[in-house]
């Protein structure tokens, strides 16, 4: 199902301001006026950042950690704007935050991962923004639920927010290593397919969780055509009051951004384009053979189903299933095909084969 978000103004105006990637940067949290001003001035001097970020209300997983300065820090963000000309963005998590942000003339707002999970909060924030023309960026929810992410975007769309964007910050996983959150890039592709008008920024800081991985995650985001980056930068990262391990200095941010390889979606080189098209043609041929093979497999499954029906045999037999998987995995290893790919593929193929036989037996038993 595609989303109900239709052609909107979106954030493209902001994103198209520069040739290089659109970058939002700044500390995880605003800690003091001197801190935000010092970071903002460094970022401004390097001239690669368009929007200054700082969290003012911090949704911390556990109580007792630094929970942000609150409204007072919105005045500091305004000072950043006055002194550097950078636009500003902060996180809101309820209607009262929205009221404060609007009163203090902040340019954009983002919705954090711990808020996107809750449709009640999203609806409350959306209602507080009805009729207001401010860009809203929605982070993915903590866990890999695309529906909640799209649902939040739809709620803002419905109240008339025309400049909407998404931020991919990775997903909670029991096994995210080496990162803090699992990137699950596939979910950003799905979001693109369902809501093509929504630009998607990547937040390498919260995906990586450690400063040494920020560069790699940022490059991957560019390689797969994200529309921009949101990166946490701090003047003294080790002493940061939140997310210390993942923050980097404005200098490191500058060197990461300088080193990024930016790719284009189309090819300028005619020779390369010819080669690419020829290979794609071959792939199309293989894929159509692949689908014909699946069709042949389907006919065989029908025959098997007939025999099982006649002789009152169960559809699923554990030993046979183990044997299929072992044998396919071994072949994958022998040929150098990714074993997890083959496992996932045959899980799907097997699921449909079993369903096909269930349908066949149901029909016959009627
Ligand atoms: C943040 O950007 O500092 C933040 C709290 O992020 P998230 O909501 O992605 O955890
Ligand atoms: Mn943070």
* Beta strand count: 8
Give me the number of helical elements.
14
Assign a percent range to the helix content: 40-55%
Structural domains: how many: 2
Question: Major β-sheet, in short?
Answer: 8 strands, parallel, barrel
Q: How confident is the prediction overall: mean pLDDT?
A: 94
Strand percentage lies at 5-15%
Broad shape: elongated
List the ligand species. Answer: phosphoenolpyruvate, manganese (II) ion
Compute the separation of the termini in Å.
33 Å
Fill in the CATH topology of the largest domain: TIM Barrel
The class by helix and strand makeup works out as alpha/beta
- Our Rg estimate from Cα atoms comes to 25 Å
Word description of this protein:
This protein has 366 residues and is α/β, with parallel strands linked by helices. The protein has two domains: 12-259, TIM Barrel (Alpha-Beta Barrel), CATH 3.20.20; 270-365, Chorismate mutase (Chorismate Mutase Domain, subunit A, Up-down Bundle), CATH 1.20.59.10. 51% of the residues lie in helices and 10% in strands. The protein has 14 helices and eight strands. The protein has an eight-stranded parallel beta barrel, surrounded by five helices. β6 (164-168), α8 (185-194) and β7 form a beta-alpha-beta unit. The protein is elongated, with a radius of gyration of 25 Å. The model has no long low-confidence stretch (mean pLDDT 94). Phosphoenolpyruvate binds at residues 28, 55, 112-114, 139, 169, 206.
What's the quick description here?
Helix content is 51%, strand content 10%.
